[in-house]
Write a structure and sequence with these properties.
The structure is a single chain. With 340 residues, the chain is α/β, with parallel strands linked by helices. It folds into two domains: 205 residues, Alpha-Beta Complex (Quinone Oxidoreductase, Chain A, domain 1); 125 residues, NAD(P)-binding Rossmann-like Domain (Rossmann fold, 3-Layer(aba) Sandwich), CATH 3.40.50. Strands 3, 5, 6, 9, 10, 17 and 18 form a seven-stranded mixed beta sheet that branches. Helix 7 links the parallel strand 12 and strand 13. Helix 5 crosses helix 6 and helix 5 crosses helix 10.
Length: 340
């Protein structure tokens, strides 16, 4: 095996990234070395690329290899403890690297660990590379026979599963604001979990059309007047600070709002007019429950209730990262996958 590899590296506090040949990492105790088969670009990666205030708050040291949605073949297992993961297995990585010692970890809230590191964002690991090191404790062994470019998008599908599970959508009317990859997955999962009707809102026509393929009943570029005050469940995945009051207008009295998208700037809402007068409930979601959500996600894929292949619209070589990022930022895509 070679000693160096191609990787997408964030080198400084500024927009952009660099493609570099860097040493192949060596797994420490409790870690795996994988040969990356596919990795996909997330909206978070756009923030890191553009160097938004959110990104500045999550990367303190440089350089760092980016990429957290990854699937790869295990080449080495460095562990003295018993594990069911072995050389040759195909594994994905849970982004939230938990400590297993804090209060949240002890009460099974490991996805919001108090001492969390984020794979491919602020720690020592990253998947936009030919090889990667992953902690064994955050590695998911894939047992479903699905192509690598599709299974690399399992992590954002997990976000959607967590969102929809918290929303309790069965038999209810659901509206989804923002039809990026997670929003697309929310549409499919909501239908799979028994939502009565799923409406999608997105400014770009490409993703509105894609949402229809993913199972949406109707799509619009804005909230139609007829749909104000009509939805038991409103799911916000856009991160658009300008539409916060609009999403509250969509909810019917005593409805539920689920926030997932991260606004790039502060957002304001009219608490009295919407939350108090309409007695709305609001919850938020950060990542996936470990490992409950992963089992739910795997079940949806194995049963074919969700067809994740429809979401993967573009594929590039790792060396074509800049072109891939341009497509992702254009919004004229579903999931953009990189193949080393």
């Amino acid at each position: 095996m070679a000693k160096t590899m191609l990787a997408v590296v964030k080198e400084k506090k500024a927009p952009g990234v660099a493609l570099r040949n860097i040493p192949i990492p060596l797994p420490k105790k409790g870690e795996l070395l994988i040969k990356v088969k596919a990795s996909s670009i997330c909206g978070t990666d756009i923030s890191l690329y553009d160097w938004t205030p959110w990104a500045e708050g999550h990367i303190q040291k440089f350089p760092v290899t980016l990429g957290h949605e990854v699937v790869g073949e295990v080449l080495e297992v460095n562990s003295d403890e018993l594990t069911d993961i072995k050389v040759g297995d195909m594994v994905s990585s849970e982004t939230h690297i938990f400590c297993n010692n804090c209060y949240q970890c002890r009460i099974n809230n490991r996805h919001v660990c108090e001492n969390m590191q984020l794979f491919g964002i602020g720690g020592d690991y990253g998947g936009f590379a030919q090889y990667a090191v992953i902690p064994i404790r955050t590695s998911w062994k894939n047992t479903i026979d699905i192509p690598a470019n599709v299974i690399s998008a399992q992590e954002p599908l997990g976000n959607a599963v967590h969102v929809v599970s918290k929303a309790d959508v069965a038999g209810k009317s659901v509206i989804v604001f923002g039809l990026g990859p997670v929003g697309q997955c929310v549409v499919s999962v909501a239908k799979a979990y028994g939502a009565k009707k799923v409406i999608g809102i997105n400014r770009g026509e490409y993703r509105r059309n894609l949402a229809m393929k993913m199972g949406a009943d109707e799509v619009y570029d804005y909230l139609p007047e007829k749909y104000k005050n009509q939805f038991e469940v409103v799911i916000e995945t856009s991160g658009n600070a300008e539409i916060m009051n609009t999403i509250l207008e969509a909810a019917r009295i005593a409805g539920k709002i689920v926030f997932f998208g991260v606004p790039k700037k502060e957002a304001s809402i009219e608490i009295g007019k919407y939350f108090i007068n309409k007695e709305l409930s609001a919850i938020s979601v950060f990542g996936r429950r470990i490992w409950e959500t992963w089992y739910q996600t795997s079940d949806l894929l194995a049963s074919k209730k969700v067809d994740l292949a429809k979401l993967v619209t573009h594929q590039f070589k790792l060396s074509e990262f800049e072109e891939a990022m341009a497509v992702m930022k254009s919004g004229q895509c579903g999931k953009v996958v990189l193949i080393p």
